Amino acid sequence: MTAATTSASNAAKPAGENLRFYGVWLTGVIMLIVLPLVFSSGGSLTSFSLIGIAIVFALSYNILLGQTGLLSFGHAVHYGLGGFAACHMMNAVVSHGWPIPLPFIPLVGGLGGLVFAMIIGWVMTKRAGTVFAMISLGIGELVASSSLILRSVFGGEAGITTDRTALPRMFGWTFGPQLQVYYLIAFWLVISTVAMYALTRTPLGRISNAVRDNPERVQFIGYDPHVVRYFAYCFAGFFAGIAGGLAAISFEIANSAYLGAIQSGLVLFATFIGGTAYFFGPILGAILVTYLQLGLTDVTSVWQLYFGIIFIGIVMFSPGGIAGLLMMHRPLVRAGSLWSVIPSYLVAIVPTVALACGVILTIETIARYPDGERNPVNLFGVAFNPGSPATWIAAAVLVIGGFFVARLTWMRIADAWDRAATVARDRGHLI
Amino acid sequence: MTAAIEVRAVEKRFGNVGIIHDLNLSVAQGERHAIIGPNGAGKSTTFNLISGHIEPTSGEVRLNGQVISGLRPFEINRRGLSRSFQVTNVFARMTVWENVRCAVLWATGHRYAFWKNVDHLPEVRERTARILEDIHLTHRRDVPAGLLTYAEQRELEIGITIASGATVVMLDEPTAGMSHAETERAVSLIRRLTEGRTLVIVEHDMSVVFGLADRISVLVYGHIIASGTPEEIRRDPKVKEAYLGEEAH
Fold it and tell me: A380: how many CB neighbours lie within 10 A of its CB?
């Protein structure tokens, strides 16, 4: 779909729209404050902290991918260097007795990411497209391998450790308990998100979109696309560095895993799944991917396979990501024709879930086959023996049968969708 | 008075192939100048050479007396020359409003600013609104440019081109592919919007050319064989033979 990026706010917004705009932000902030009070276990606090860091990181990545059209395979470099900068700074603060409390440390991480972006960015952003992607891959590998070689800076395999509680206190907070770390992350999440959103509303942010759409034409309205890309790259590096700094505080360590290809891949993955065309897309993606990562690793040894399947599915069937899927429905909601689509969705759920179960059963059976009965596949409380032919038949029936029935229901969705879209078009809510 | 555009002895070769040779062209301030010529004569290449899209192999191009050949397109644009494209070249995923606004930003001095809210710049907003009014697209302001009709995209293309307030405007086949009625609309639009500016236009439609242009240059095989008023061009025997003659058959 060709939705305009963050085009909602133009000149002279009506008061109602303004109210809703600030309402959304306020709701987000309140949720961040209240969440740990509702889910107060140590595990969920850690999860929320990780999600907060992932959101900042994914949003910073979208400055490149969604806003400026730059596909980077090495964005974790700035995240990692931000993390190392933060760790070194924390250790320096402690050993020199500087009066810098912990809440300011993420800014140091941001500067670490920014400085490196300023140094390598000019060469990297000379060209967009494949050239940029390849250079980013190269820089990523270069920095990741340097981190193992330059032991004095990166601490080799072990990395650089630090102690966040040793820093000067602020408001009497030691930042020992996870709850305090969570609020520190939440604070920086809000600051960074507001700043990154504001960036999209500036002349530079708008021209970044223009460079994404048509770098050639930008030159004929007075702009140098290289400079625009460079600025975007620096901002992305800065906010990635903040995320890295937050990670360093949370884990009290920075090591080579921070800036490697896996980390770069994950952020690309989260941003794309969430949807690059909308500002909030990467937020959804970061939440989902972090949750999947935390949840799936407990249940299955082949969790990366599922990541891959989800990614391929999104790329093929919903290139706009989750945000794109959601926003597709906006014109229908406005036209009041959404209700005519919902029943077809409900009908499609059953065979689609059956198909998904079949795929999961197949994958898990293959993965666990050598263990046989000792390692059963547990699907909704039902244990399947991966060594038994009955399981294989069940998987085959679910996959094949599920696929054919699901396909029928998907076609029904398409029909219902067409009718609803026609209504929306007639009422002037869809172009 | 210095000419708005002065092209002197420009050559363009791609390898051994000479596309443009000994190109000389002078466009006076405020003049509406049309470049015509058969297909493949090098009209678009001439446009690309002047606007900095490609660099001449030799020779020089001057804009208001300043040498601009060898400069990058955005540097030439900042000196007051703006061009449109034969194939629609807009920002497809951005709205009509944003397309025009982007073209206004540099000229209003906001450059790469990342500390200003683009929605709170009154002069940008007013200028964008006026241009949308001018190109009759106000009612389509929130539509992504990629979803406009062809004729609307062509109008937007003109809007983006004039938005910076450039003193020299170059339009590359602005009415290509338009119906008769659409062409008439576009011509009156061009006439109105380029009032008081220098216009260079490449056009295939002879009624448009002879109705709009103060002067015409005829380009054949990368060389200008004649330059003059519409009346002079009509009478020129070389032109008749090389170009108009073909049409008269």
Answer: 6
What dihedral angle (degrees, nearest 10) is formed by the CA atoms of A222, A223, A224, A230? Answer: 160
Q: Which of B91, B95, B153, B171 to mutate to test the interface with A (most CBs of A within 10 A)?
A: B91
φ and ψ of B171, to 5 deg:
-115, 125
Query: What is the structure's pLDDT at B138?
Result: 96
Q: Which CATH number fits domain A39-327: 3.30.460, 1.10.3470, 1.10.10, 2.30.230?
A: 1.10.3470
How close, in Å, is residue A18 to chain B by CA atoms?
13
A243/A184 Cα distance (integer angstroms): 12
Range list of H helices, A214-274 = 215-218, 225-251, 261-274
Q: C-alpha distances in angstroms, A86 versus A55, A78, A163, A301, B128?
A: 19, 12, 11, 33, 45
Q: Give me A371's structure tokens.
A: 């263990």
The A-side interface with B (CB below 8 A) comprises 2-5, 7, 9-11, 198-199, 201-207, 209-210, 212-214, 216-224, 227-228, 231, 235, 277, 431
pLDDT tens-digit map of B212-229: 999 999 999 899 999 999
Question: Which residues does chain A have within 8 Å of residue B144's beta carbon, measured at their own beta carbons?
Answer: 2-4, 7, 431
Q: Tell me whether residues B93 and A431 touch, CB distance under 8 A.
A: no
* More confident of the two residues A382 and A59: A59
Overall size of chain A counted in residues: 431
Instruction: Give Cα B225 to chain centroid, integer Å.
Output: 21
DSSP H or E run through A161? strand A160-161
- Subunit contact A222:B94, Cβ cutoff 8 A: no
For chain A, the domains span 39-327, 340-426
pLDDT at position B245 is: 54
Query: B235 to chain A nearest CA, in Å?
Result: 37
- Cβ(B125)–Cβ(B105) below 8 Å: no
Write down the pLDDT at residue A8: 40
Place of tokens 């039902």: A382
pLDDT above 70: residue B246: no
pTM: 0.93
Closest Cα of chain B to A37: distance in Å?
Answer: 36
Exposed/middle/buried for residue B103 (C-beta within 10 Å: 0-12, 13-18, 19+): buried
Residue of B nearest to A230 (CA): B112
Pick the residue with more confidence: A225 or A156? A225
Q: Which residues of A touch B115 (CB under 8 A)?
A: 202
- Report residue B170: phi and psi, to 5°: -120, 125
